[in-house]
Amino acid sequence: MKKDKIDELFKELDFDNKEPASVHRTRFLKKLEEQNNHAKTLGSRPHKRSLWAPMLSVAAILAIAFMVFAGFFNENTRRNSGELASVSPEMKETQQFYTQLIKTELATLEAENTPETEAIVNDALTQLEKLETEYKKLKKDLQNSGKDKRVIYAMISNFQQRIDLLNEVLEQIENIKTLKNQSDENYI
């Protein structure tokens, strides 16, 4: 039953099973000959091609070597930058934590800068500049000492001193605000 349907299908379809015209063969051979002639023409200039290939290879190798060297040099520069973050991933996290905390506290301090607290805020900023100068010296020491633990400890201590300073100043500002509010209440 199925075979009969398949046979019927093939009978209905008109397959082209005739031989191609003789002109077709002539055209095909002509195209093959043209293609061979074109390949021979390209093959007649082997010297130019053979000179460029090695030169391009050498240029590519030099470019890759330069990129590898530049990457290595940048990595060494970053590692030897004198930052606490260059010591280890843990120290990088520590530095990021302290840096963010100092920025937050400093922003709070600057927001509290009023005529009553201006002298305290300016004094705190001067002390922070001194601690920052000391930290820059510690960065150089870290780079020169080969990541000495005493220098690392001093750098962390410097961060803590800055945070303690900012906290003390903010506490003093709160005391000044409280005293001002009390004196205003007593005045009324």
Please give a structural write-up.
- With 188 residues, the protein is mainly alpha-helical.
- 84% of the residues lie in helices and 0% in strands.
- The chain contains six helices and no strands.
- It has helices at residues 2-12, 22-43, 46-79, 89-111, 118-145, 149-187.
- The longest helix is centred in the C-terminal third of the chain and has 39 residues, at 149-187.
- The radius of gyration is 41 Å and the shape is elongated.
- The termini are far apart.
- The model has no long low-confidence stretch (mean pLDDT 77).
List the helices and strands and how they pair.
Blueprint: H1 2-12, H2 22-43, H3 46-79, H4 89-111, H5 118-145, H6 149-187
Helix pairs in contact: 4-6, 5-6
The SSE order reads HHHHHH
Mean pLDDT: 77
What's the story with the biggest beta sheet? Answer: none
Shape descriptor reads elongated
Terminal Cα span: 113 Å
Helical/strand content category: mainly alpha
As a percent range, the share of helical residues equals: over 70%
The number of strands is: 0
The Cα radius of gyration reads 41 Å
- Report low-confidence residues grouped into runs of 5 or more: none
User: What portion of the residues fall into strands of 2 or more residues?
Assistant: under 5%
Q: Number of helical segments?
A: 6
